[in-house]
Amino acid sequence: MIVFASFVPHSPIIIPEVGKENLDKLSDTIKGFQSLEHEIYVAKPETIIVVSSHAEQREGSFTINQAPNFNINFKEFGDLLTNISFGNDIGFGYQVKELCEDYFPVMMTAQEKLDYGTGVPLFYLTKHLPTVKIVNIGYSNLSHEDHFKFGQIIRKQINRSGKRVAIVSSGDLSHKLQVDSPAGYSARAQEFDQKIIKLLNDKKIDDIINFDPELLKESGECGYRSLLVLLGIISELNYTPKQLSYQAPFGVGYLVENFEIR
Ligand SMILES: [Zn+2]
Prior knowledge:
The protein is of the alpha/beta class. About 35% of the residues lie in helices and about 25% in strands.
């Protein structure tokens, strides 16, 4: 049973020990995370699936991280305090791989330290869920349709498992919104962010799957494929998109979106 679904940003700047004086500029995003934290706690998930843009990637294959235990820290960003551990829902990962066999390859990886695309959202969302199990998924260079289909297969396994499962799709929108953006500036970056947000809020899933490839490439996003997997998971559910925040103080689009499942 899917009890929670969200799309969230993952800049390490959102972590207090990393962002420090920059945190003020991200207050809407942090409020968005806090509101999601409340929702996910109430939803009481047994497992959280995180689809991350920065999980290990393999050519022509999705990945599932099968390390038995996971660790989250942000040492490479100067945060020496954060240190969180979780168990992996390993059986879930194997079953998804099996279900995918007729469609596309799924490679098993084994990274105990979770990538920051997974770690930043979990830092906020698991404050009161210390024993929840994690499934850590990486997207691929396969087609948009395959990403959507991958989400549909994951949903099948969620239903078979009988568990209460939360979905966190992790990704940033355009990285080219300002002249001093990390990936350089694009005049079409705003257009990309606004279009994706509107399509999400209008539930126009087909238009998201068939999104203008040129604009997609131009935007320098990292969250689009995470989003496709999420939409594959929830597309047939009765859900209501709720935009909690959108900010881009450093030239990268941060969207916090909840998908209320009824
Ligand atoms: Zn990213």
